[in-house]
Amino acid sequence: MSTIIQFPEDFVWGVSTSAYQIEGSLDKDGRGPSIWDELAAIPGRIYNGDDASVACDSYERYEEDIRLMKELGVKAYRFSVSWPRIYPTGSGEVNPKGIAYYKKLVTALLDCGIEPFCTLYHRELPQALQEQGGWENRNTIDAFVQFAETMFREFDGLIKHWITFNEPWCIAINGHLLGRHAPGIQSWQSAIQVAHHVLVAHGATVRKFRELGTAGVIGYAPDIYWYEPFSQKQEDVDAAYRAFSIYTWFVTPVFAGKYPGAMAEWFKTKGAEPVIEAGDMGLISQKLDFLGLNFYGGNIVRHKAGNNYLDLEHVDIGYDKSDKGWFIFPDGLYLTLNWLKELCGPLPIYITENGACYNDEVIDGRVPDERRIRFLQSHITELGRAIDSGVNVKGYLTWSLMDNFEWAFGYSCRFGLVHVDFRTQKRTPKESYYWYQKLIRKNWLEIESR
């Protein structure tokens, strides 16, 4: 006995990447240095001493990658633009070679019937701006809006789906509190102020998009993890609230015009409170056309004073884990989507990232990655449940098209539907690639009963 999950006729199936993780060619055609170039040059900051100087060499091989997408059958490709390719020092003079590269990419996508979903910021701050204070400096907001305006003007009519920021939690918390990501700062106040400035930059960019009358739609792509308390003890309930709200801190003000109150009070116990100027919250809550959601998992947590940055611990109750050690929690996607429905109503939602690290290698010309297939099937099943529950989900863009540079983990984590040999740059579609191809063609998923 089996269950069929049918998706809407206009449902958009796609894949996602980011510029820094796949392009390589960091010193080509006038690109300026970014904060990640700087971090990768510090011994011990990136696993195995890896860097993104070559990555997947997609700057040179983008046509091959688009052919893989066309064969896969996707209708959307979410990519990001390297800010330092457009403005090598963050502002000032535009680099025409950067504009020309992305026009070639976008034109090639459109020629293959693939809709470009363009992310303006995916962690690539020009190093020159970091030397002026980076996202802690409010002037960076103006520089970002200038960059965004250039993109809107240059690509008006070519790109119709725009995303302001990807995963602001990673920008603020990983980059400015935990120090795992560039620029490698460890400060509560820095993290909370950066979070605010990024949100203001998001809102100012949406406003600029409207002022220019740019064709198309604009959204935003935060990441959210779903957490449940280990018990109904108040301290465990509070721990789960903190674990969840550290992510929704970047979502609630976009729709409600205010930060989560209890979390704001908890931040004060860490000596952190954002400096908010008049009009900021109204700017942050500019009306969006759609919301992106990056979902990777969640877990059960309980209170543990002094443990990690949120005074909690993750409880291993037997959930599967990826090769990166992340807990697999597919029903968390269903729960998160329903939570978002309560927050933002019928606003269209796209899953802009969803995937897992499984380090399967090529065996006799094939990559048998059954665990990734199970991951995709379980999460797409929960996506179908959410749609049946009335959540306005318009598309699913899995992470990622191909294995790539996984930030501080270097090349040790494979997330792709396509295996990349980082020595030869040979691309080998995995079994999950063919599974996803079949799903796209059918537009329905069959779940076998156990």
Brief characterization of the structure:
The protein is α/β, with parallel strands linked by helices and 450 residues long. It has helices spanning 19-22, 35-40, 58-72, 83-86, 96-111, 127-130, 139-155, 168-176, 188-212, 234-248, 252-256, 261-269, 280-284, 331-344, 370-388, 431-442, and strands at residues 2-6, 12-16, 76-80, 115-121, 161-166, 217-221, 226-229, 291-294, 298-303, 312-315, 349-353, 393-399, 418-420, 427-429, 444-448.
Describe, in plain words, how this protein is organized in 3D.
The chain is α/β, with parallel strands linked by helices and 450 residues long. It has helices at residues 19-22, 35-40, 58-72, 83-86, 96-111, 127-130, 139-155, 168-176, 188-212, 234-248, 252-256, 261-269, 280-284, 331-344, 370-388, 431-442; strands spanning 2-6, 12-16, 76-80, 115-121, 161-166, 217-221, 226-229, 291-294, 298-303, 312-315, 349-353, 393-399, 418-420, 427-429, 444-448. The strands form 4 sheets. Strands 6-5-4-3-2-12-11-8 form an 8-stranded parallel β-sheet. It starts with a strand and ends with a strand. It has 16 helices and 15 strands.
Question: Which blocks of ≥5 consecutive residues have pLDDT under 50?
Answer: none
Query: Strand share of the residues?
Result: 15-25%
Ends apart, CA distance between termini? 8 Å
Q: Any idea what the radius of gyration is?
A: 21 Å
Helix content: 25-40%
